[in-house]
Amino acid sequence: MAFIIDKQTLDDLNIIGKRRGDAIYSLFNKTQTRGGAQVLEEMFLYPLADRQKIHQRSEIIQYFQEKNVAFPFGNEAFDAIEHYLENTDQRTRIAAEEDTLKRKLRGYVGADTEYEMLHKGIVAAIEIFNGLHDFLRTIDTEHTTRAYRLEAREMQTLLADEQFAWMYEEKGSRKLAYARAAEYDQTLRFVARDKMKKLLYYIYHIDVYIAVARVAAARGFAFAHALETGENTLSIEGMFHPLLTNPVSNRLQVDRSSNVIFLTGANMAGKSTFMKTLGVVMFLAHMGFPVPAGSMAFSVRSGMFTTINLADNLNMGYSHFYAEVLRLKKVAEQVSRTEDLFVIFDELFRGTNVKDAYDATVAVTEAFAEKRNCIFIISTHIIEAGETLREKCDNINFVYFPTVMKGNIPGYTYQLTPGITNDRHGMMIINNERIIDIIKGRRHHLKLV
After folding, report:
1. pLDDT tens across 148-199, in order?
2. Of 260, 281, 310, 403, which cross-links 423 as Cys (Cβ 3.0–4.6 Å)?
3. Nearest-10 crossing angle of helices 193-219, 146-159
């Protein structure tokens, strides 16, 4: 079963990113090959919703982290072999009968560019094949972790295939006789092409495993422990956003008796950053990737929906409030037909008046609270809604981000705290920035003119 996620969520959490340079994907993309980067992107586009598969990938990455090995291949060889294997036109096949004096003369003067490109691809295949053989011996696949054993055995089987036996004899060769090149070309491009592509597939995964393992080690990420879905448990210690400099870490505990998190706090206190952090951590955990936290255990979810940076839609004639309603409807429909979802709403109903926002926040949160198999994180400025919900529901965990005043200047701890805050500092910040004085000063200036 696939993990359910949509574009709004991917954009909210900056998973892939429009420019990619500042996205979560880019954080992990330290791959050495284009093929590795493509495999990594596939993993990001399709997170896992199967506990066994999550554990398997996590265990493999841990294995490569423990081995602490470097990727043993050069990128140039992969460019050559990919270009070579894509050319399956029989008319370009190297034919032994064409080893004529005329062809040799073209080779001497450097005019036989087509043959040289094919020759380069064959040499690259030999280099990669033998490089993989040596690498697997280095990491001792005979005693590998159970999760990686199947991939290792499949690679060993391909390496032992009699169609590739000549590869070992040609190890280190940079120049092949024409007749041999013709024989090898027939095997690589037309007889055993799929087997060679399968080897590349495994090598690109090795590239990803090594890259992710090194990022995790360098940044102090932890490997999450996936639990059965029905437990509806989430336990995170030392969670932080991986793209922030000197981030403040937080902890969170959720179970079936507290599966709704009701989050309050003043502007700039850290609510949105916390929700993005939590979303990123949950996303990476469902990829089987290491997470920016000290430790984590989580019940596997069926999917995740976030609403953090929701825009209005002027082209459709939608106001911000109506866009919120449509988004809420989509998530509600998904919750009604899919169990075990993880849902984040930041500043629910910010696009309408306070009275309607209060009524709607209470009604929607109370309805969500009945879905004890899901986990909901809802932030709001309507703290009165929290007091009402405290009386109505027994499975809501009320938390907030405090503000510490230094005179008239608000400061923030960014530490999640139990309870509901009474902090309201919007007007204080406006006064501190002298907005009213600026407006009045400008008006007085206009009168004088």
Report:
1. 999 999 999 999 999 999 999 999 999 998 889 999 999 999 999 999 999 9
2. 403
3. 150
